[in-house]
Amino acid sequence: MVQDRIAARYAKGVYELAEEKGAVEALLADFTGLQETIQTSRDLQVLLHSPVVAADTKRAVLRKIFTGRVHDITSKLMDALAIRHRENLLRNVAVEFIRIYNEHKNITPVSAISSTPLTEVQLKEIADRISKALNTTAQVTSQLNPDLIGGVVLNVRGMQYDGSVAGALRKLQKQLAN
Questions:
Q1: pLDDT beneath 70: ranges in the chain
Q2: Can you list the domains of the chain with their CATH numbers?
Q3: pTM for the structure as a whole
């Protein structure tokens, strides 16, 4: 998609600037927070994507929300996006910045979905096994889905590994149907 390529260019440029200025970790915190804020705020999503709201208004709202909370580079990026009428790309830029950071630091995000909350010991065990298998640092986040009945589903590098009871039952059902 064209928007993803544009967001990737912005993210790459901002990442390179952050490296020069020694602000990569600060911007990682900014973009992680921005991504979460945009993802959880329906009002902010509507504002950023609305063609009816003027760019100056969007810029003012972003400044009001984030001034004093984000690094100067992040603030200037938000201004630049608003001026170019690309403020709707802010979340995409944040996602891409985090991806670039993870790539540079050899971090692999892992999503562990289970029917009950995983303990810290279980999360560490998952991270250790994936880190060892892929020669990377696994960063595990957990989600709950009671429909799984038991077990865990792992999403790693675009692949899904289904070790859930529900998944096993589906496989068994397919085998019996054939």
A1: none
A2: 2-103 (1.10.520.20), 107-177 (3.40.30)
A3: 0.83
